[in-house]
């Protein structure tokens, strides 16, 4: 999760829960990641900076609900980043991954990031990880990712999730 890093907003906490096997898990809280630019550096002072949590892992979930709160100020510009491995059994090369939000085209990326865990499971090399940031608006949305078949066949669904930013 990321959000606008604005002056006057402090103590951001993200709470989330996931739906697994038809049941919602208990709410869990994560704070802002300590991975950030050095204080006083040029990068830390640039406009448009974003706060972020460390990654949230939700394996085999069919939905995620998220809310943000701050000790002081209002959290704005909340975004969810979905990460899931993609591969095509016809090739060991990286493949395209397409995303749809509420049935509408939302973006594309290439599954080419190193993921040794994915390579160990599928045996098609390690470069099949990907991530993409899709803008989130208020309300619940249905997000789907599809692996693009290199031979022009059917593009199988990698995952569809219901998310509430």
Word description of this protein:
With 165 residues, the chain is mainly beta. The chain has two domains: 2-78, no CATH class; 81-164, Immunoglobulin-like, CATH 2.60.40. It contains one helix and 14 strands; from the N terminus they run ββββββββββαββββ. The protein has one helix spanning 116-122, and strands spanning 2-4, 13-20, 23-24, 28-31, 50-52, 63-69, 80-83, 95-101, 104-111, 113-114, 127-129, 131-134, 141-147, 157-164. The protein starts with a strand and ends with a strand. The model has no long low-confidence stretch (mean pLDDT 78).
Main sheet attributes: strand count, strand direction, barrel closure: 8 strands, mixed
Rg, rounded, reads 17 Å
Order of helices and strands: EEEEEEEEEEHEEEE
**CATH second-level architecture of the largest domain:** Sandwich
Q: CATH top level of the largest domain?
A: Mainly Beta
Secondary structure: helix percent: under 10%
Structural class: mainly beta
> Mean pLDDT, rounded to whole units?
78
Number of strands: 14
> CATH topology of the largest domain, which one?
Immunoglobulin-like
Shape: globular
Low-confidence stretches: none
